[in-house]
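Dear Dr. H.,

I hope your travels went smoothly. While you were away I took the liberty of generating a structure for the chain from your last submission, since the lab meeting agenda had it listed for discussion. I wanted you to have the full record in hand beforehand rather than looking at slides cold. The sequence, exactly as received, is reproduced here:
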Amino acid sequence: MKQILTIGRYFKSKYKQRVRKIPISLQGFTCPNIDGNVAKGGCTYCKNETFSPSLVNLPQSNITMNLTLKENPILKEQITTLKEQFFSQSKNHSDKFGTDRYMIYFQSFSNTYAPYETLKTLYNEALSLPNVIGLSIGTRIDCVEDKVLELLGNYAKNGKDIWLEYGIQSIFDSTLKLINRGHSITLAKELVQKTCSFGIKVCVHLIYGLPKESEEMMMQSLEEVISWEIDGIKIHPLYIVKDTIMEKMYNAGKYEPISLESYTNLIVKSLKIIPKDVVVQRISAGAHDDSLIAPLWCFDKNIQMCYIRDKLLKEKIVY
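The corresponding predicted structure, in token form, is as follows:
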């Protein structure tokens, strides 16, 4: 049997105990693909509230982050939100699972897309919270400054477990253009390798089932990012939620979502070629409320994972 190095097994091996990732969403953060810096409207499938439900309860703000913002008048409020979300979720994990080690996951939007001093303050605050062993920071390849890599590299040198999670989604520029990604794939490999040179671990996100992509193209994306010598990977199916451009495409009959069977077959193929030292952080995703339009199999993650695990076991793979 091939045992996949999941994030849980990675933590258990490194820290000899369970570590939980605490997802954090902060007011004021956005994305250069939303605010018009590189494009407008965001990716055609994107609605952050469905990925990060905590966004719904965030205090409203007229200030949005970007790389050129001179002052950040909501920094104190962001720090307060960070602490509130951390203590609420860490207590939950402690009460349910007896967990007492945590990694802060800056999840929603692009979490390097803010002035350097804001990022430094928020990252420092996160690392100062009780029993936090490191950071995982979700972002894009077009909004990571070298001085931020230096900052994160210094945390890593001082023993913190530091990850940057890059949303690559696909290596095909035709696909990236179709989904209004707002950048090409040109600089992705270079940035991933530069990030690693600072001692920062890299987790790449891929989406299976993007419009007009064949299974061969999806596997090519996987093979390419593996060749970049990444540390981790997240793969998930494209699902359609309300109030997105993808919903309009779907309703117009211009897009057919990937089936559970096809997706699972791709996951089986993928896990057979992902190196054993690459941390597979995710192989499923979905929206568990009435925002989900299609495919309906993405509604219940437990049913989804039971089906996928059953297929994997038949191929002698343990996830």
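Two observations you may find useful: The first strand starts at residue 2 and ends at 3. Residues 61 and 114 are 15 Å apart (CA to CA).

With kind regards,
E. W.
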